[in-house]
């Protein structure tokens, strides 16, 4: 009986350690995800600005006369 209890205690300790490890990893992944989403938003905004600038430059180009 003592052996079974000891085995259960060891298993519970391993499960608790694994749970804490996974929880820490999950927290880190959420932090990384937040940073990547912020970076993605920043890059999307920068791309939209670039597109607007290119469109403005294209609008200023003279019409082709050889058509």
From TrEMBL:
Keywords: Coiled coil
Recorded coiled-coil stretches: 5-53
Name of this chain's protein: TIGR02449 family protein
């Amino acid at each position: 009986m003592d052996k079974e209890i000891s085995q259960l205690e060891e298993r519970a300790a391993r499960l608790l350690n694994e749970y804490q490890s996974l929880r820490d990893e999950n927290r880190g992944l959420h932090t990384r995800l937040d940073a990547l989403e912020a970076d993605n938003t920043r890059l999307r905004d920068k791309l939209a600005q670039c597109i607007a600038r290119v469109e403005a430059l294209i609008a200023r180009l003279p019409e082709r006369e050889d058509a």
